[in-house]
């Protein structure tokens, strides 16, 4: 591990001062510290923001939720407002990492975590995320776990967060604070696909920190849930996953919010599936037909072609679980 300085911010202004100096924000540290140990990340200064007043979960007008960036994954998953209004978020969190890590890791840190691509974490391998212009060893290497949606000729690494898939489905927003003041971004604009700049993973400006993730109000009743398919039952990243939220009134689907994980370079919204559902009555045939659109635009690599069919089956199964049949 390379030498670094450490500062514990006592307040927001102190944290932003550190950000202006180029310091890296750290809270739970469950991802950044690992990458520092492996010499993948080499920050010169860490700014501990754990004491900042960003630990609350509050309701918003109409039934939305604002989750502070420093709320732990475990606390968010257990919160009664989260569980009652958006079980898809609670389930995604509970299917992430281990209980010990969920107690430490924060919501802001979770959506900021970097890919689990083995080539990214191997400092001897070519990786455009780690060293721009060096190439992507995954494209011609072993790429079973990599993306079939959103990849470029520069990078095919998947985003590892489960709760980010739920936030994408629910069309959440990310609140930011930096030297130039406050702003917010739609979740879809916060995480960036690789394109020609895979090292630019979030739409953060220099010195900005995440203050909260806000889930907007949705029509009620809203049924939701998260399904994760992986090689083993615990402490494993998704091969595919599906976050589904449905508003059914009068026996007809009035709103559908769906996203997939494990298959995209960012959490992948599935608008074609959503459109197929709107105005229809729940049925086995509807779930199957809608799920056929889940892999639209997929470009499998040598070893991950199985994800195309697995994604369709994952989406169909979760539509059935959340929406039921008649």
The arrangement of helices and strands along the chain is EHEHEEEHHHHHHHHEEHEEEEEHHH
Structural class, judged by helices and strands? alpha+beta
Catalogue the unreliable spans.
Answer: none
Global outline: globular
The profile of the biggest β sheet is: 5 strands, antiparallel
Mean pLDDT value? 96
How many strands appear in the DSSP assignment?
A: 12
**How many helical stretches?**
14
What helical percentage do the residues reach? Answer: 25-40%
What is the CA–CA distance across the termini? 58 Å
Q: Please state the second-level CATH architecture.
A: 2-Layer Sandwich
What would you say about this model in short?
With 326 residues, the protein is α+β, with helices and mostly antiparallel strands. The protein has helices spanning 12-20, 32-37, 73-78, 80-85, 87-94, 99-104, 107-112, 118-121, 137-140, 163-169, 187-190, 271-277, 284-291, 306-323, and strands at 5-8, 24-26, 45-48, 57-60, 64-68, 173-178, 181-186, 209-215, 223-229, 240-249, 252-261, 268-269.
What would you say this structure looks like, in words?
By secondary structure, this protein is of the alpha+beta class. The chain has one domain: Uridine Diphospho-n-acetylenolpyruvylglucosamine Reductase, domain 3 (2-Layer Sandwich). Helix content is 30%, strand content 21%. The strands form three sheets. The chain has a five-stranded antiparallel β-sheet. A four-stranded antiparallel β-sheet has the order 9-10-11-12, with helices on both faces. A three-stranded parallel β-sheet has the order 1-3-2, covered by helices on one side. Strand 11 and strand 12 form a beta hairpin. Helix 5 runs antiparallel to helix 10, helix 12 (271-277) runs antiparallel to helix 13 (284-291) and helix 13 (284-291) packs antiparallel against helix 14. It is globular and about 60 Å long. The mean pLDDT is 96. This is Xanthine dehydrogenase YagS FAD-binding subunit. GO terms for molecular function: FAD binding; xanthine dehydrogenase activity. Its EC number is 1.17.1.4. InterPro entries: CO_DH_flav_C (IPR005107), CO_DH_flav_C_dom_sf (IPR036683), Diverse_Substr_Oxidored (IPR051312), FAD-bd_PCMH (IPR016166), FAD-bd_PCMH-like_sf (IPR036318), FAD-bd_PCMH_sub1 (IPR016167), FAD-bd_PCMH_sub2 (IPR016169), Mopterin_DH_FAD-bd (IPR002346).
